[in-house]
């Protein structure tokens, strides 16, 4: 669910390569916003100032980027399940 904190930090997560690969598929602005917000843990206002965009743009790009990341990270799981069941 959105806003939930993972049980273990990303640097300890075995899925880190998948996260990095998904990040690389995002548009540059979305990637920058997500990295600054969630890797460097910067507040919305600071990210907005650094990227010369509004707070609202930081929020919308965060939401869009996270949605795209979820989609990208779910694709391999769905494909593996599909193959496993012989479809």
TrEMBL record:
Domain RNA polymerase sigma-70 region: 22-71
Species this chain originates from: Paractinoplanes atraurantiacus
The keyword Transferase appears for this protein: no
Keywords: DNA-binding, Sigma factor, Transcription, Transcription regulation
Family annotation (InterPro entries): RNA_pol_sigma-70-like (IPR039425), RNA_pol_sigma-70_dom (IPR014284), RNA_pol_sigma70_r4 (IPR007630), RNA_pol_sigma_r3/r4-like (IPR013324), WH-like_DNA-bd_sf (IPR036388)
Gene3D superfamilies associated with the record: Winged helix-like DNA-binding domain superfamily/Winged helix DNA-binding domain (1.10.10.10)
A Pfam cross-reference name: Sigma70_r4
Keyword Acetylation: no
Protein's name according to its UniProt entry: RNA polymerase sigma factor, sigma-70 family
One annotated GO biological process: DNA-templated transcription initiation
